[in-house]
Design brief:
alpha/beta; Rossmann fold; GMP Synthetase, Chain A, domain 3; globular
Amino acid sequence: MSGGYWPEGVKRHLRYPRIPVFELLRSAAALWPGRNALVFGGMELTFRELDLLSDRFAAALADMGVGKGDRVGIHLPNCPQFAVAYYGLLKAGAVYVPLDQHLSERELLYQLRDAEVETYLGLDITFRMPRRVLPRTPVRRVILTSLTDCYPRVSRPVKPLRRVTLPPLAADFADLLTYYPEEPPDLSFDVERDLAHIVYAGGVAGRELGVMTTHFNVVANCCQFTHWFAGGEISWRKGRLEVRWPAGDGPERHVVRRGAEVSLIVVPWTHVMGIVAFFNIQVMNGWTMIVSARFDPEQYLLDIGKYSATGFGGPPQLFLPLMENPAFNRKNLEGIRLVVSGAAPLEPRVLRRLLRRVPGLVCEGYGLTECTMGCTANPPSREGARPGSVGLPLPDTEVRLVDPLDGRAAVRDGETGEITVRGPQVTPGYWRRPEETARVYRDGWLYTGDLGRKDGDGFLYIVGRKKDMLICKGFNVYPHELEEVLRGHPSVAGAVVVGRKEVRYGEVPMAYVQLKPGESAEPGKVMDWANRRLARYKRIRELHLVEELPR
């Protein structure tokens, strides 16, 4: 890192426990046994209960023949069964394969085949499509669950969901937890080699590949972010993750406190941000999760007051619907200590409004599936954060910017380069794809395919994607920059800039723009407005108005 800035109370180097991921839960169950781990639709589950139920599921999987290294696919929305199954399959030595609820039939078939998933856990009411897919996959065991199992029998009749009759040969998740004892298999783990996750992503590689993530990767990334926001030195002693603060420091000096926070959870646990930031880090620190299966802005705002929430977060798409809801300006947000945004840059106007309403820290960070989840974050203080930046490298993390063309020469501060990352959270590569692994993981560095620049203090700013870079008249043009300018127009809701090949100029920028509801504008005038704010070689050559942009 260039420059001399580093946040107070944050160590540059940490010691990372060599433990499997499920020990995060066992530690929480030992430290806060009676504290609620999660609340879902009124159902409460303590850390001790979550630990015991996952022991039962691990015993069931072992009895069904699931062994070390076998892949188990979870095809569920966020719910208590997901949490139990995740830690249970890890305790059985299996590998978690997240299957997003929005996968198409083609995508689900590909992921199940590619990861060679043998055990599938799904939802009764959405099983129609998977039922067509599974016979064409390696899946040999099917387990189904129902969200109605989360409701007491007395209130179940007034709930909107109804239980669906399970097909033959499908095991009932609730029955497994009832009939199996709390006796998980006794296994040994090589945490730096044994996989915890295979997560499908198409970011760096350009096509969907399974990113292998070890137990050590997950635990290290959880420790990095825990230290960043809560401080202290993390150690593993007698089955517990303990945090000790040096003289002159203490938990009260940091943004969040262990065993004290309440978080609203809506980011899907099938996403790396969800399973690391909004699940494992929550469990590791004894935070109560108020879990939602889907995002309802009005209910989300109601839950802040109902549960005295102290934190929430997600991708930028979460915040705009919240702020557009009339209740946002009325809601008391004085208890919010931390808001986290990631996965894409947060628009400046959204950030400014959040900062006006939230007294705590609003923090942007940067990461990708290939580095488990995150590799940079803004400093853990309001005065230290820099708007527009995704912050500084986490402890033991190096972020280097190199020439986008040759991939070797370092660029100077202020210049644009490809972001490369090295650290304990960087994953070992792609599942059974050695050629793609060799192309992206080179000489100990992860080549992210993202473009960024650093200021003199080492703060990172995302410019765009390498593959999105246009070369117009011999100059590099980054669509993300042009899109940000267009979104600054008072009538523009969103914009996408792409390149059109021309023999004379190479690639010229053309824009597709969606206007705000009720607004009208002439394409030429919007284009002229934007071009007045751009260098000549960056100017947009065509602009088309569309009713809705693809998301």
